[in-house]
Give the backbone structure.
Amino acid sequence: DTGVSQNPRHKITKRGQNVTFRCDPISEHNRLYWYRQTLGQGPEFLTYFQNEAQLEKSRLLSDRFSAERPKGSFSTLEIQRTEQGDSAMYLCASSPGLAGVTGELFFGEGSRLTVL
Amino acid sequence: AQSVTQLDSHVSVSEGTPVLLRCNYSSSYSPSLFWYVQHPNKGLQLLLKYTSAATLVKGINGFEAEFKKSETSFHLTKPSAHMSDAAEYFCVVCPGGGNKLTFGTGTQLKVEL
């Protein structure tokens, strides 16, 4: 399978703990995105990388959130000192070009976080 | 600023009958508009896209949408629903040439026998 891969698929943690999610995009895609989806809502943009450069961050991405893409390939999203409000599905997507031009992001199946 | 409003959170149709999922958009720039579908336990998948070419856009699985600037609408239609169409559908806007997709809140489509 050469699609976008996310790990872990499910994570249950206690409030205050740190969690890290990993995303492996489609290999030839230089753009990588993180979105967050809560129950009953559409995905919300968190951040975007072009190669290893993080070019845009949403105000939703508080100081407790950090994302990296060190070699321009896989990416990690870390949440420090988790809160119950962080419970959500975290979606990763990749694209070969500007989303508004190519029109398509390729999404992974997501990583579901539950904070107790 | 850009946004989309999906007018129905749930739509229920009988198999073989037409589908209409409604979406209105707001954008300061010439927008690109998309419909994505999310089946249970599957990743989001692009159904179709409008990027300022033909106003009637055809997508996968028999879906199509019409861009109507005067009505700021981009409704999704299908002539005949199939059981496999049951899923959640998202209307999405992006400023033309931009990179940040803004999703609507979704419409859950139920298809009954």
